[in-house]
Specification:
Layout (H helix, E strand, L loop, with lengths): L1 E9 L3 H5 L4 H8 L3 E2 L2 E2 L2 H10 L4 E5 L4 H4 L2 H12 L3 E6 L25 H17 L7 E4 L6 H9 L4 E2 L23 E3 L2 E3 L4 E5 L2 E4 L7 H13 L4 E7 L13 H16 L3 E3 L22 H18 L1 H12 L3 H13 L1
Parallel strand pairs: 1-4, 1-12, 1-13, 4-5, 5-6, 6-7, 7-9
Antiparallel strand pairs: 2-3, 8-9, 10-11
């Protein structure tokens, strides 16, 4: 059986904090997914998972506790645990720039992989302790913020007793994700002392990896990627999203396209007899000689259909974002003023 791991990177926004947003407003936007039409964050996601009999994994970033205090992390962790979903560790080192106390001394960086091994151990250990203090069971799995891990991150995790890492995303390989694994292999395997559980996906064109993310894949692509994993005998199918991903980019309205995609993913997992739902707590380790899981080949028509779907989706759900983008273009060129004027007139 293939284990479908549906995970959510669950985090306050360092960008919103930097722009002056207070902790409560950041929590409501980033965690509750609150907009004028209601809440579309973690509670909405858990409702959907539970309607289909599924269990989700929430990779929670405790680093905002260094700025806002521990209560905000407790408010994230408590409902997830109470509803029977899994909490694992996420870590965005961007918060160190604003922190009152820095476990790494004076070191800062965008990604955990920007730090030397000793500092990574301190940061991961400190983040783990904050997460446990907020009410989570001791985490056994980790995902780096921005997928920005390297091989030292895995060494640090192994030394701290973690069993799994899920920071390897083929779309980010060489672009922040510096784990030395083959992006053409989606199979779980042991690397530097712990089991790497890569993000699943497929090729949407030659040599271009498309990750199994709600805002990246169409319903058709997600179903094909799930089917490919199950048919290939993969131990896991790892799809991910964010706590705020069911909102438009400006977080003003729900993104109906993303909501439909999540519903379709949940339905596909629930209806496939080859697939079970769950997290890392009961995930079996790979065999000594794990099977290579090749990335599914591209299908140009499938890619074209997704591009068209996403284009209409952005127009339908993110008009305000597009209007702002056009406004910048209008001010930058003569043709931009002409084309931008036409768009703004009809939008």
């Amino acid at each position: 059986m293939t284990r479908a791991i549906i995970s959510f990177d669950t985090e306050l926004s360092a960008g919103l904090y930097q722009r002056g947003t207070d902790a409560r407003a950041n929590f409501e936007s980033s965690i509750l997914g609150r907009c004028r039409e209601g809440d579309f964050g973690i509670h909405f996601q858990m409702d959907m998972l539970e309607r289909h009999g599924l269990t989700g994994v929430y990779f929670v970033d405790p680093m905002p506790a260094l700025v806002h205090g521990p209560s905000v992390i407790e408010a994230i962790v408590r409902p997830i645990i109470e509803r029977g979903h899994e909490v694992q560790l996420h870590l965005h080192t961007e918060w160190l720039t604003f922190a009152r106390f820095n476990p790494a001394g004076r070191l800062t960086g965008r990604n955990i992989g920007d730090f030397p091994l000793a500092a990574q151990k301190k940061l991961i250990g400190s983040a783990r302790d904050m997460l446990v203090a907020a009410g989570a069971p001791r985490p056994i799995a980790f995902r780096a913020g921005n997928f920005g891990a390297n091989d030292d991150t895995l060494r640090a995790l192994a030394s701290l007793g973690f069993r799994f890492d899920s920071s390897f995303n083929g779309a980010w390989a060489g672009h922040g994700c510096e784990i030395s694994l083959d992006p053409g292999n989606l199979g779980m395997r042991v690397h530097h002392g712990l089991c790497e559980v890569p993000v699943s996906g497929l090729l949407d064109r030659a040599s271009r990896f498309r990750p199994a993310q709600l805002c990246a894949m169409s319903e058709e692509e997600m179903r094909d990627a799930l089917d490919h994993s199950a048919a290939s005998g993969a131990i896991q199918f790892s799809a991910f999203s964010h706590s705020f991903e069911l909102l438009s980019r400006d977080r003003a309205v729900p993104n109906r396209l993303a909501i439909e995609r999540m519903e379709a993913l949940c339905r596909a997992v629930a209806e496939d007899p080859r697939v079970t739902s769950g997290g890392f707590a009961t995930l079996p380790a790979p065999p000594t000689r794990p099977r290579r899981i090749q990335v599914a080949a591209p299908k140009p028509l499938r890619t074209a259909r997704r591009i068209v779907e996403q284009g209409f989706g952005h127009l339908a759900h993110e008009v305000r974002y597009v209007r702002d983008l056009i406004a910048v273009t209008v001010n930058s060129s003569r043709w931009g003023k002409i084309l931008g004027g036409v768009f703004l007139a009809v939008a």
